[in-house]
């Protein structure tokens, strides 16, 4: 996402600042992340934050867009696998690896922010809806790739629809995210992913 700024040139790296904002939003949620905490983590002043990113809502949307492009890049790569069985494997196993990185909070920012059903401010509700739309867009892309595998590759869906399989994969991935945030080890979560994959690729 290109950010247009006014006034003097920025004295900080926008992408680094967004990565730090991601960590704060991820840990604290949208409503829980204060501007003081955000700007402190980003090592910029509030004036610089507003000039570079706009308001807190705009900062979140830019941070989340970067999160999707970087932290969830595995999902895009998975869709590019030549065989549908490999799409499934990459989607789940690479998700486990991404959700248990040492340099990020464990779990999934999308699940934490978008899955919250606690009382939120109006802005918090809007952010949750924004995240939900992005998740649905990802689910639509996964569904389309499964349809392609069925129609071109002839992959046997065992009587299930592409949409139901996409929902299954997303649900397993989301469950893995919750357990990763709970502290479950990567090896155990990869075993969970392998069990789920047997239901899809075993003959």
From TrEMBL:
Query: Native species of this protein?
Result: Conyzicola lurida
Assigned keywords, A-Z: DNA-binding, Transcription, Transcription regulation
Instruction: Enumerate the spans annotated as HTH tetR-type domain.
Output: 18-62
Which InterPro entries does the record cross-reference, listed alphabetically?
DNA-bd_HTH_TetR-type_CS, Homeodomain-like_sf, HTH_TetR, Tet_transcr_reg_TetR-rel_C_sf
What lineage does the source organism belong to?
Bacteria, Bacillati, Actinomycetota, Actinomycetes, Micrococcales
Recorded GO molecular functions are: DNA binding
Name this protein carries in UniProt = AcrR family transcriptional regulator
Q: Does the keyword Cell inner membrane apply?
A: no
């Amino acid at each position: 996402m290109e950010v247009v700024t006014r006034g003097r040139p920025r004295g900080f790296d926008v992408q680094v600042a967004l990565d730090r904002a991601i960590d704060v939003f991820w840990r604290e949620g949208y409503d829980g992340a204060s501007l003081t905490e955000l700007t402190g983590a980003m090592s910029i002043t509030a004036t610089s934050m507003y000039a570079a990113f706009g308001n807190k809502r705009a900062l979140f949307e830019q941070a989340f867009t970067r999160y999707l492009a970087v932290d969830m890049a595995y999902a895009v790569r998975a869709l590019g696998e030549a065989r549908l069985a490999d799409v499934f494997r990459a989607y789940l196993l690479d998700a486990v690896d991404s959700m248990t990185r040492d340099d990020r909070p464990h779990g999934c920012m999308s699940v934490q922010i978008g899955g919250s059903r606690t009382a939120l401010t109006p802005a918090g509700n809007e952010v949750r809806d924004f995240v939900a739309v992005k998740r649905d867009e990802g689910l639509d892309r996964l569904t389309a790739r499964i349809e392609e595998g069925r129609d071109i590759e002839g992959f046997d869906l065992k009587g299930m629809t592409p949409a139901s399989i996409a929902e299954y994969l997303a649900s397993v991935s989301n469950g893995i995210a919750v357990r990763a945030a709970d502290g479950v080890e990567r090896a155990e979560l990869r075993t969970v992913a392998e069990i789920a994959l047997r239901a899809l690729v075993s003959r």
